[in-house]
Batch of 4 targets.
Target 1
Amino acid sequence: MDLQPLWLTFRLATITSVILLIIALPLAYWLAFGKFKGRGIAEAIIGMPLVLPPSVIGFYLLLAFSPSYWFGAYIEKIFGLRLVFSFPGLVIASVLYSLPFMIYPIRAGLQSLPLSLREASYTLGKSEWDTFFKVLLPNCKPAILTAFVLTFAHTVGEFGVVLMIGGNIPGVTKVASVTIYNEVEALNYTAANQYAMVLFAITFVILLIVYSVNNSLLRVRQPS
Amino acid sequence: MEVSFQLPKGHIMALTGPSGAGKTTLLKQIAGLINPETGRISFNSTTWFDSDLNVKLPTQQRNIGFVFQDYALFPNMTVRENLLFALSKGEDQGIVADLLKDTGLTQLSGRKPFQLSGGQQQRVALARALVLKPDLLLLDEPFAALDHIMRHQLQDLLLKFQQRYQFSVIIVTHDIGEIFRLAEQVAVMDNGKLVSFGTPYEVYLNKKTPSGHLIIHAEVLSCQKQNNILHVQALVENKIRELELPVEMEIQLLPGTHFTLQYGTDSPQIGIIKTH
């Protein structure tokens, strides 16, 4: 079995999840506590990937990334980077596609904390920044872990978007889900099964670890 | 909300009134956690809030301590870390050790809040609010969830700290006993308005003030007529008391009946409480 698609899949999922975590922390805070007009619009845009068919997102990203259109041309001119049919393009597409999976659990985690924790921190002279990193985030670890794993798993399971903008280039854009599809198309069920089994097993183990860790984190908070 | 009062420096003021009267909102406005629509809040010679001049001093700069009803201890930190959190890096940690000692928490300083009882958590909250040596301490029904003995202990602790550090205090409470024990001033709010302000004696016991009455809620346990007086055994705030009431009230006071007595108003005084 060629391990490259699996390696590529997990590399893509890891990079995507890390980037999204960095983006999602301030965004989730802003959505949870920010006072601004147009909150509905912001939430609708972030939530779009939950309901849109991946092929729709893939199609528009394909157009956007293409050097024939201004965004793709601009990126290529400034950074010398071609996003279409490339790994960086795949990362950007995955980040957009998995955005709600990272933001929503973290936002829910932040909102579930009592308001008095933030207020107590302010009355102790602490800034919003300190309060966020030292009080709020450490107290919603289970939500952050859940968000990270959901994002990771969602990226591993990505198929439509990858196919649209990444194509099928071995070692560059040919991830495990696409490989499985290819093997099935070639009636090579044994190979397809091997890849599928690996994804199946790894995904199960990850979720198992997450729920065990989360349960123990939550148990610690319960008064004895 | 329409509230206006002045609190002399170093005094303890109780803020009371029915639920929804706006007590917590007022406390949070003083703390700067909520901004009033209009008005002015000043402390010593500093203006904290002035809607006309567009002054809004952030909470962080008001040097207040705040004790929350739900304690608001940081669950991720130990008792000691909860107190240390208030200090900036490199600041002298002596005050933390002192406060832990004075609140009897030294032994528990390595525990997380969830490992503590309600009374212990409240002591941590009080100690934490004092780390920065505030000029004004705000307490939102701090002792409401505690039993009688614990409540008294914490009231004594609060008085001890107040006498030592000489900060001003505004405490939201429903407990009239607590008001008399702690407060030099009491402000009674109802429906967003200040309806009475003065010393506890003036507000509750002096008949001349508009809302000057002491209300006692009780439940009848048993009722006996003797020498033309009705001896009523009643449950008042979880304690059995004997009340002597006019015989004519017998018909109203069947066992299980909840009733309210008003003392010290212009309405006739209808009974005396004998404490056992």
Target 2
Amino acid sequence: MTKLGSKSIDITTEKKTYHFPLDRYYFTQEPGHIWLKLDGENLNVGFDDFGQSQGPILHIRTRPIGKAFSQGKAFGTVETNKFIGQLRFPVSGSIVEANSKVFDDPQLINNAPYNQWIVKIRPTNLDEDLKSEYIISIGDRDRLEKYIVSELVKYEDPPI
Amino acid sequence: MTKSKHEWDLIILKENDSLNTQLVWHAAALARSRGIQPRDLIIIDWPTDPIVVCGFHQVIERVVDIDYCRKNNIPISRRACGGGAVLLDSNQLFYNIIAHIDSTLLPRNINKFFEKTLHPVAQTYRHFGINAEYKPVNDILVNNRKISGNGAGLLEDAQVLVGNFILDFPRKEMAQILKVPSEKFRDKVIKSLEAGISSFKDELGFIPQRDSIIAEYIKQIETAFDISLIETQLEPGTLELMEELRETYLTDEWLFQVKARGDQLTSKVKIHGSSHVVEGMYKSKGGLITVICEFNGSVLSDILISGDFWILPDTILPKFERFLVNYNLAEGDLSGRISTFLEENECETPGTSSSDLAQAIQNAYSKISNT
């Protein structure tokens, strides 16, 4: 079941209700589930509610600060249940700061995924990168809903 | 007309150099992601000699007795999968399942991925009369003892499961490679490994022929995945990737890349140029305590604790560090505060007292308070 609020989308499955605020971009390139939100000239980047629900996050690592990478390259890894997953740069740029709070206690992301950014990225080609097929724009509820529903089906936790 | 089964490649390398057993699946996963390996594949091999392999996010110097490994010529490597440090040796049989992320045969849900990929392992043990069962998330147990170790990950666009059949387990050797505070503690580790890990030899009194285990595992995989495994060789491009990785995987940059929060804290020096980030050290009987502290006036605004002293449980350090943050050194009685934390969290710090830990922090603070 999808509940469309004015500021978010909530999608319910047998397991839980997934929450997606519409005030930010989402990056979908496999394995996806990255949110990004403008913060001055930087972008705050985090893991969405679907991403965090794959299990308790035990460790996070990211690339070093300062080195530039292109959109889609891995910026870090997360470990859940002995599984190492990837986090991808949603736009080209470099990490300017890593959130030490989530490195100390990664489960803060499990508790409140949208309150905890993982890294701040200084974009180098933002306007072009935001046109990528893998970016869902702020407020694009139709694309966001389609994306999440297809992911839930793929991960065998379909909406009810 | 009957639908033809998916075909996967089967690479049976048999006996393999210990480092090669790790390089090969890393390389094959990257090769599968990049299209060099055209089909999903399973690699089966075992190491000629022992090798210590740590989990991707582990701080190696905190968990492995590096000196012991060097003295005994046991290489140390790091895998791109989760979990803890393990000693791998010739009495284990490895399987590596590698599939492109677009493969519809392997679930994307982590729990279901492990369930599907580990079912054939449990069934193989059962074929030999061992009552092994899959237990979520990633264990194969017999009478509550683990009889197979498994980790998984995503390397670029390839999903990987790595695991082993344990033919016989080297408990004493495993306890030797782990960093422990005392020999008495090492005995505890051996007992815990005896109680917690089993093997073909423990369960049957003998080790079946490797070829028969491999043959049964192949049969179980083909049934569970509904595929045909076609035995072949690795692509030349994959072998080239192995050689590239070889140059990386034994370097300090790869092995010691995880420095707890060192990178994050050190980076603060760059970002907040006005903050005071200083290092303090103190040598206790239990070992050297090293702290990197960020001070805002007399308030400890961040701290990273490392060194070669021992603290149990070994996962407590991040919590301990968080506990210390915002402590005002002008208040005094840092030692008492640390003592309370250690007691409340039932920590053991053999040879290191709360006042030793406090002294390391005071030594850091004195560097800015004296300027």
Target 3
Amino acid sequence: MRAVPFDAVVEAAKELFLETHFHLREDIRLALERAWEREEEPARTYIGLLLENAILASKGEVPLCRDTGVPIWFVEMGSELGMEDGLLPQAVEEGVKQAFLQYPSFSPILQDPLDVKSLITDRIPASVHLRIVEGSELRMICMRASALSELSSRLGVLEAGFAERELVEFVRQAVLQAGPWCNPPVLVGVGIGASLDDVARLARGGLLRPVGKPHTRLEYARLEQEMLNAVNALKMGPGGVGGETTALAVHIETAPCHRAAIPVAVCILGHSVRVAEVILTPDG
Amino acid sequence: MASPSQQAETEGTRNDTLETPTEDQLPAIPSATAHVNAKTEDMTPLRLELPFQDHVLAGLRAGHWVWLEGTMYSMGHLAGQRLVSEIKQGLPTAIPLEQQSIYFSTPSPAPFGKVIGSFDPEISAPFNRVAIHLLAAGVRCVVGYGPRNHDVIEAIKRGHGLYLHAPGGAGALLARCVLQSEIVAYPDLGLEAIRRIKVSLFPALIAVDAFGRDIFHAYHTSQKHQRASTGEIIL
């Protein structure tokens, strides 16, 4: 067993948290550029402003978006690794706390979801998806989930014998119901299978895949394209002002599930896609 | 019933989108082309001085971009509610409202050496009631994000005002457009306090113009985010 120092994880979490304030994911920027080329006014100007915003924010002074959101952590820990001096969620939480000291930001978290007075502003309880993998590396990914993204997403369970068309319709409906409030052009993650609790994580995990990289299996890649066409046929456009680009991509992730109940989750992320990644090794 | 992808193929031009009501129970698909024909009309953004004069309204149509120049007041939910309660009680309001423009947003904390933090708009729908009261009290222009309900559009029409849709999620860009910012009322609300901001080249799309034309007309049936107007909810 090799050990990862607690402080190294704290430092990594801090850096990731700060980076996701300011940096739009590169593939999203490129996808927006492509969208800018095919859009007409007023959507074209809208996308132009988003691109300009990404350039300004990347200077590291003012965050991309007012709602810096809640960080969701995807952590893959090598099975040969252990933690020294503390637990992983503690280290992540400490890193975020230190980031708050270095750069003042505001994430309105309720300690008690039913009590609007229980606001905590100086730290964010860690939401960590931990997976043990082979090897001796620690891979940490931080993704920001804004309130609007959460409000736009939906989850359901389909009965056995559903048609593929229903799946497409489920995704289309989710975006339609979310309306302009989901901050289009959006990135859509679709989880199919697993269980009720895991399917949402699958959907969120789909958002980690870069735009322009289809599913490795051909039939799912085709389904992704079909869903994307269905969503873009809504003509909601950037910011809901009308246009061809309502979604930049739809990414499907699947997992084995009970044959009689197929959970489906749709995770919609607005255009401010903020994801950062780091790999730690025990030797530093 | 044709599948959505088939529809996508059959839809030729953008104007066709108006004639494709897919299912009756769903809100129709919006299209900016309902009001603006991009090919025939000059879409160059206009500079709009705030507070604006009546005569400029004739040239401002829903679907056009404007660059705002001048002074606005920004506020969050709690400040809006407090202001409305002052109006309802007939008290003198904390800020002048006559002819003014209101930007619904709460900035993120200002970084060291900056005028203001990330400053993209908040969703307007929870501010619907606040907006109606403010428009009735003389406010001419409200700036926010997303569709507004019928009552607000009527209030805008009545007051010959404007509703502007600022780019959501463009916080760094909009912060750069703010030259000066000063808290002028309710400092106890912290970030949500009312600020007087001086802006330049602040981009906004005219969503509802003085004649009540609305680029989001398809979304009014949706009641989403209306609930927040009753409680102290911060998004």
Target 4
Amino acid sequence: MRLIFREVFLSFRRTPSLSALSIITIAFALFVVGLFGLVAVNLRLALADIEERVEIVMYLRRGTPRAAAVAARADIRSFPEVESVEYVTADAALERARSELVEFRDVFGDLVTNPLPASLEIRLKPGFRDGQNVALVAQRLTGFRFTDDVRFGREWIAKLDRLRDITAAIGLFVGAAFALASVIIIGTTIRMAVIQRASEIAIMRLVGATDGFIRRPFLLEGAIKGALGGLAAVALNFAAHQAVNRTLIETSFFSDAQAGLIVLFGTLLGLLASALSVRKHLRQV
Amino acid sequence: MIKFNKVFMAYPKGSLALKDASFHIKKSEFIFLTGHSGAGKSTVLRLIYAEHQPTSGEVRVSGYHTTGISSRETSKLRRRLGIVFQDFRLLVDRTTEENVAFALEVTGTRRGVIGPKVMRVLTQVGLAGKARSYPGQLSGGEQQRVAIARALVNDPFVLIADEPTGNLDQRAARGVFQLLQDINTNGTAVVLATHNLDLVRRANYRNIELQDGEIVFDSGNDTREDMDE
């Protein structure tokens, strides 16, 4: 084991700039993935926050009997997606308008008849608050005889959903491109290391070192570079997150498990790159 | 020990390097493999240490059939062989003792055992005093002794030497040859490929002569008998 670490250390010393380049590429690849990840994480938090406030408002036709509204409330409450239903009478709506829209208090005060309709306000259970489910429930609500109109933030819910999907997709795509670049660069450094140590490897073979033994320092080298790149990426992401917090908006950072996943991914990337390269080039020595 | 039975060897693009070679090398035997360059001497040695596999026929080394041998088995086989080349093949950035220890380190020998073993073989080849010298500070003869020490340190049953004196002046060549004879006296078989006829004449060992890939002379000449054993 000591011997392997010595070989790895020697290899770093022999090609410091190439080693640094591999680490930096991996770091950038994972930094980019991480940035998009951060955006996705924060979008998801924001969406959850907004979605919690998602309400579907079902306006009732004027003159709908109270009994019918109450029956409908019970009916809607039994939908599997629905968390709660509130019946807001026309009077209550006016009352609310008066207290909330202070600027128009005078207008509301002068009214002879109440222009506001009664409504049912529906809240969905967590997990059903995305655009698709909201639209589905809303559609069902239009089926009631006394439904005048159903309102919900259909468009912006769908837009937020799409934004989250697009962010994740771009992150994956750009990250994959960088990951490929880092696989190629790590592969090249390993290739150079193999060529540089060709005579050593030939001697190792002659005295009976196994292929696994010969391969191990190269694999370890790749894994270490990957892990260092992953750590650097997490550090860069943290710096970016701090900068955004200071200048723009308060954002959340990865959980420890997510940060660990980035480092692990870097390690695996380094390992994969060196495994591919060493397999190919050892045959030529 | 080492048995060649009707061995043919063809390189991917080239004529036959070895044609119908059959011989048997016994325990503790000393054998000269002679012939001009390109006669097939190195091919025979490569077949012994499983660098190549025969195109047809059978090569058996210490119980291993080298046809279709796995890389793991090849490693195991080579730990039982000592191999020496004309160009020494030392690591120039390591000292004498590090070069010898390298063969033990990469085969997973325990650290505690390495030091004493290295000193023992360095003493055997007469280089105990130069343990900390680098190859660049040694003469050709001394470098070849380091290579021999490295080949011996795993206690091989046979030492395979491909033109070990090819790069040496006559005096150094004789010194290395004397060392190989001493090693043989201690019970290790030696297969020495050479075209240095001076050495061949100096000792009355079995001589297998190759010409264009064919065995044209074998002073042991007991091949048939051995194959029937």
